[in-house]
């Protein structure tokens, strides 16, 4: 341990930043908040909107200790201020529970008329403040260092990178700077439900080809070798050409299964009876062995076949949302950015309208006040002792000096 506080924080006194840097930092924080909240201004309960495709959800452990209820952003502010809240980021197809039967008679302040329960809502351990296969909270008060977590796009639980069934976190697709190369992650518990993805071209996997998902082993006589994209086709007894080949798929550490993978998948649009895969996805063998996590490339959802057979297949497995563009986090954040830009434009428009409503004298007075404020803060920052914290008394002194200057200017 360090001998003194000075030794523990040797660079603290040297830390400084400009007003411009401070404003940029605040804007970055505001943008991050808007992305998490989906651009929700937190004024109205979202209950009337029904089961929204995606929204920010919070769990109040003060009101519902069992963690079997969730509330929207507005209710978290208006109805649960000061309570022990768990921020769940976003959840799909969720309807605000605030004030229903799970809250013991406490009505919602924003929307008191609600059904006793939202039967279509899904709750996982996150609502209790637990995450990952280890069931630990985040931040973890017992951890020496908080380990980065990633969210499964299927079950929406969060996982520590060293708890997702990999031999090493180095197997996670990243670039040279450590930034993720994948757009979405499917955990090892959910990958069996999505095993049909291995019927698709290698381009849906992060880094072009996911080593854990598709591997060819020429030494295995039970698995047909995958030819090149220009390889030969096989001929059936009836003379029809078969453009599919068998490919070995890694399922666990010590087991493999052969599945039929199309040689050439049609990546164009699909509807009705026209299938991109050129086969019935229901004929794929069931997976019973341990599965590995999937790391999906950008735009992988657009590749999914939407023919009637495949669509029914998704629906039967409860993953039909994968073909809904608005379900993805990427689309959620895109809409949030649009809302933010519109809000900033409205604010700028309101400021312009206000300035235009002022007469010449009022405009001069406002500009003088802004200039005084800038100069006073600059003078304060240049003269203050950076080794000492800024107190409320310091800020009060700044505004007292501004008031004196204004009085002198008007006298």
Structure description:
With 411 residues, this protein is an alpha+beta fold. Among the domains are: 21-124, no CATH class; 129-207 and 282-324, Zinc/RING finger domain, C3HC4 (zinc finger) (Herpes Virus-1, 2-Layer Sandwich), CATH 3.30.40.10; 359-410. The protein is built from 8 helices and 10 strands. It has a two-stranded antiparallel sheet with strand order 1-2. It has a two-stranded antiparallel ribbon with strand order 3-4. A hairpin with a 5-residue loop joins strand 6 (234-235) and strand 7 (241-242). The protein is elongated, with a radius of gyration of 29 Å.
Helical content stands at: 25-40%
CATH superfamily of the domain at 129-207 and 282-324: Zinc/RING finger domain, C3HC4 (zinc finger)
- Arrangement of strands in the largest sheet: 1-2
Beta-strand content estimate: 5-15%
Output the CATH topology of the domain at 129-207 and 282-324: Herpes Virus-1
Helix count equals 8
The geometry reads as elongated
Query: What's the CATH C level of the domain at 129-207 and 282-324?
Result: Alpha Beta
Number of strands: 10
User: Average pLDDT across residues?
Assistant: 78
Q: Low-confidence parts, pLDDT < 50 over ≥5 residues?
A: 1-15, 208-258
User: If classified by CATH, what would the architecture of the domain at 129-207 and 282-324 be?
Assistant: 2-Layer Sandwich
**Major sheet details:** 2 strands, antiparallel
How would you spell out the order of helices and strands? HHEHEEEEEEEEEHHHHH
- The Cα radius of gyration reads 29 Å
Through-space gap between termini:
59 Å
Structural class: alpha+beta
């Amino acid at each position: 341990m360090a001998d003194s506080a000075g030794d523990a924080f040797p660079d603290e006194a040297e830390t400084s930043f400009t007003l411009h840097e401070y404003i940029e930092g605040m804007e970055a924080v505001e943008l991050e908040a808007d992305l998490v909240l989906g651009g929700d201004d937190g004024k109205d309960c979202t209950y009337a909107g029904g089961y929204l495709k995606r929204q920010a959800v919070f769990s109040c452990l003060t009101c519902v200790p069992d963690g079997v209820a969730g509330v929207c952003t507005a209710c978290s502010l208006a109805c649960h201020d000061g309570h022990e809240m768990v921020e769940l980021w976003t959840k799909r197809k969720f309807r605000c529970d605030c004030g229903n039967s799970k809250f013991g008679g406490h009505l919602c302040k924003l929307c008191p008329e609600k059904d006793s329960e939202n039967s279509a809502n899904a709750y996982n351990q996150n609502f209790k403040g637990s995450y990952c296969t280890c069931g630990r909270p985040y931040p973890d008060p017992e951890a020496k260092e908080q380990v980065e977590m990633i969210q499964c796009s299927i079950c929406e639980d969060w996982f520590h990178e060293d708890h997702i069934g990999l031999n090493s976190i180095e197997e996670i697709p990243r670039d040279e700077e450590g930034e993720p190369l994948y757009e979405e992650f499917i955990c090892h518990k959910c990958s069996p439900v999505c095993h049909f993805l291995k019927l698709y071209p290698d381009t849906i996997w992060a880094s072009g080809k996911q080593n854990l998902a598709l591997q060819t082993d020429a030494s295995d006589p039970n698995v047909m070798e995958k030819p090149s994209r220009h390889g030969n086709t096989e001929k059936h007894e009836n003379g029809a050409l078969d453009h599919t080949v068998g490919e070995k798929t890694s399922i666990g550490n010590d087991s493999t299964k052969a599945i039929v993978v199309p040689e050439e998948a049609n990546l164009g649009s699909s509807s009705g009876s026209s299938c991109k895969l050129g086969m019935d996805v229901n004929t794929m063998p069931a997976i019973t062995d341990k599965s590995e996590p999937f790391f999906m490339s950008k735009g992988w959802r657009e590749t999914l076949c939407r023919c009637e057979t495949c669509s029914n297949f998704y629906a039967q497995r409860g993953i039909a949302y994968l073909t809904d563009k608005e379900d993805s986090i990427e689309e959620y954040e895109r809409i949030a950015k649009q809302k933010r830009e519109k809000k900033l434009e409205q604010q700028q428009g309101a400021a312009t309208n206000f300035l235009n409503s002022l007469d010449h004298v009022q405009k001069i007075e406002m500009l003088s006040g802004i200039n005084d404020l800038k100069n006073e803060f600059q003078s304060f920052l240049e003269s203050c002792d950076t080794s000492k914290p800024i107190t409320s008394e310091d800020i009060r002194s700044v505004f007292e000096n501004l008031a004196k200057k204004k009085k002198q200017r008007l006298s």
